[in-house]
Amino acid sequence: MRWAAASSTIVRSAAVASVGIAVHTALNARLLRVAPPASTITELVSVILPVRDEAARLGPCLDALLAVTHLPRLEIIAYDDESTDGTDRLLAAWARDDPRVTVVRGGPPPSGWLGKPHACAQAAAVAAGSVLVFLDADVTLAPQGIARAILLLRASGLDLISPYPRQEASGLAERLIQPLLSWLWLALLPLRLAERSPRPSLSAAGGQFLCVDAAAYRRAGGHAAVHDQIIEDVALLRAVKRAGGRGVVVDGTDLASNRMYDGWPSLRDGYAKSLAAAGGSPAASAAQIGLLSWLYVLPAIAALRGRPAAVVGCLAGVASRTIAAHRTSGRRWPDPLTHPASISLLGYLTALSWWRRRSGRATWKGRRVTFPSPAGGVDRGAPTVRGHDAAGS
Predict the structure, then answer these.
(1) How far apart are CA 5 and CA 155, in angstroms?
(2) What are the φ/ψ torsions at residue 285 (nearest 5 degrees)?
(3) What's the structural domain count of the chain?
(4) Whole-angstrom Cα distance, residue 354 to residue 13?
(5) Which is deepest, 177, 241, 276, 356, by most CB within 10 Å?
């Protein structure tokens, strides 16, 4: 009896919390900053494109980037990080055909640097624009996407914005995991507080598409300040905040689309590379997954036994996911019904990430991943990923 009462209390508390999170998701959906209609940008804009072995999917990104509008003063700096799949030839042809394009051919990053921060830092060093736009090769821009993002950056008075692209997902694994990316910050991050607060925990950004005032970027130390960070986009926002700036994730669904992974193997490896770094420590990761499981997996199990509070909790989770999907142009049906399974798969990927880190088996794009220790040395389970990080945050 005592166990039954405790179990009922746990389930009811999870249901109440889930309802509160669903309400918060709806509030954030209304508060999410939206880019204004496009108008001509008079500033010089520098678009930075770090790439490594992206020949198979670089074409749509390049075509869309060359077709952007309302940017009479635009420079595009593509940093080729030792590609071996023909990416270099694509970029060279692109540069010959368009005078706005500069291709920088890179070498191995220095000791202690990760590939993507190094690529971004090297390209930013030659950028002359007053606004820097960092873009991943798996992003397809809308014609007015960059111009509208910059207008939002300036109108909001923020120093950094991260327009979150519409996520494309195909296949079971992608549809289970990818919607969690936008749901997590819409459901759990108080957006208006996050853009004002210097607290590192109130930071969310996606490196797929990121706009930053060039002066604020340099005050923050640029990518040199985050040279050893796997999740360099969030780390860059935190550096901007430490330097007195402000920034936040914003609506990018009408500005760009993004397919981060093309199947289970790449999704598994991408998350296995990043989730341990996102948690910070095994205990923190376990606490995060434990909290999400309490909120969404436990009620699903209890609902199978007909507990009314558990059913309410499940419906609240589905409602929160549906609101997030509606706001970010995701699938509103039936994918939100799989929310407990999505959380469970995220837990598996988190455990896998820590196992690979501890066993030294973490790899990305065929290279072993090493991680910086808290003291600044190298933890041998442990980032030295060279090359482009398509996984972003």
Answers:
(1) 53
(2) -60, -45
(3) 2
(4) 30
(5) 276
Q: Tokens 């390049």 label which residue?
A: 62
Kindly tell me the burial class for residue 284, based on how many C-beta atoms sit within 10 Å of its own C-beta (0-12, 13-18, 19 or more).
exposed
52 plus 85 within the same structural domain: yes
Residue spans of alpha helices (H) in the chain: 2-31, 58-66, 87-97, 115-125, 145-156, 172-177, 179-188, 191-196, 214-219, 232-242, 264-279, 282-292, 298-303, 308-327, 339-359
Helix axes 179-188, 308-327, angle to 10 degrees: 110
pLDDT tens profile 281-319: 999 999 999 999 999 999 999 998 888 899 999 999 999
Q: What is the pLDDT of residues 321-354, one digit of tens each?
A: 999 999 999 999 999 999 999 999 999 999 999 9
Q: Is the dihedral of CA 390, 125, 247, 230 positive or negative?
A: positive
Residue 293 is classified by DSSP as I
Full residue range of the structural domain in which residue 137 is found:
45-261
**Domain end point (choices 261, 276, 291):** 261
Check whether the bond before 334 is cis (ω within 30° of 0). Answer: yes
Q: How many helices (H) and strands (E) does the chain have?
A: 15, 12
Q: Average pLDDT of the chain? A: 90
Is 116 in the same domain as 243? yes
Whole-model pTM above 0.85?
yes
Amino acid at 278: A
Are residues 306 and 220 located together in one domain of the fold? no
Q: Which residues contact 144 (CB under 8 A, 6 or more apart)?
A: 38, 68, 69, 70, 255
Q: Provide mean pLDDT across the span 171-199.
A: 95
Average pLDDT over residues 147-173: 96
Residue 367 lies in a domain: yes
Which of residues 360 and 70 earns the better pLDDT score? 70
